[in-house]
Here is the input.
Amino acid sequence: VVLLTGMPGCRKKTLEIDTSPPYLRDLAEQLDFYIGTAVGYGSATFPNNSQYMKTLKREFNAVVAEYTMKWGTIRPDRETFNYGPGDELIKFAEDNKMMVRGHTLAWHQSVPAWVEDGDFTRDEAISLLEEHIDKVVKRWQGKIREWDVVNEVIRDGLTGQPGENPRRSNSVWERFIGEDWVEFAFRAAAEADPKALLFYNDYGIERKNRKQDAVFALVEDLLAKGVKINGIGFQGHFVSGNVPSEEELKANLDRFHDELGLKVQFTEVDIRIKKPVTAEKLAQQAEEYKRVIKVALEHPACDAVLLWGVDDGHSWINSSFPEHGAPLLLDSRFDRKPAYYAARDYLLAEIERRQGGEEGEEGGEKEE
Ligand code: 9MR
Here is the structure.
């Protein structure tokens, strides 16, 4: 290290990263809260990249599989159930005392070709969906606290024209079964594990807009039919500079909680920055992360914020939005960014505030 840092153009800063305590997961635990992350799978991430693994264990108390619990991984063909990668994540979570979110039992993406290109009658598709949900949920019963049962039913770009169909037409489930596939999915999940918390999960609904209204109407209708739904996942794939205000974020959580009695969580948070990434933009992102965590922590019906990745180097943003970058709390060297420190400082201040206990102002109690 001495030799290298002595060399021109090679500063010590580039070799060492800050891993000093306190860690986010320990602070979150003191606040009865989950700070989680999506977990990849393969040589660059879980369970093979030792730096990734160390960081994951150290900083997070909740995990969600980024893709290994989707149909595409679990069900390569009709007869094969590939539970291996999911089992590994659950074992890891048990060993490290982490909560596990399940993601996702039914979605229009990551559907294997044998389903996507299959030729199923409505009844056959219903049986297939129900059988899959029954098997997968029972496999991990008691180990997965909450499931994204249904993901992203409502489409983008709604205009509000009379008679407009707000649902995605490019979903196999919609095509084979029709609109009530969502109901079959939730009912099957509830039957398979009556104790699991069941979520509807979607993006672009973190502020009041037509998509949010359509999600609200969908869930309201299902609840009126007696379908068990416990919560709404607001994915939170944000663009820095366009993150809703604290008031807007809170109003959305309130809407689903106060009017429908649902739990709420931020389930896939990342805040991507338009390149070039500058110190100023990182400072803005830090404020935005703090905002999201603050709203979540203060809300009585919200007990979790899950990020969509451990570090900037392994984020889906790099391939899907190449004009943007740096979406997470840790950079591609797993070093802490201003957003990490902002999140940590906020959690620390909140612990102090609650312990200091200005009378009547402790707050933070979560609903059952
Ligand atoms: O980040 C995930 C990426 O690695 C997968 O290839 C992709 C398809 O399975 O899904 C990505 O995660 C998505 C999540 O499951 C649902 N919300 C949007 C996420 C980003 O596309």
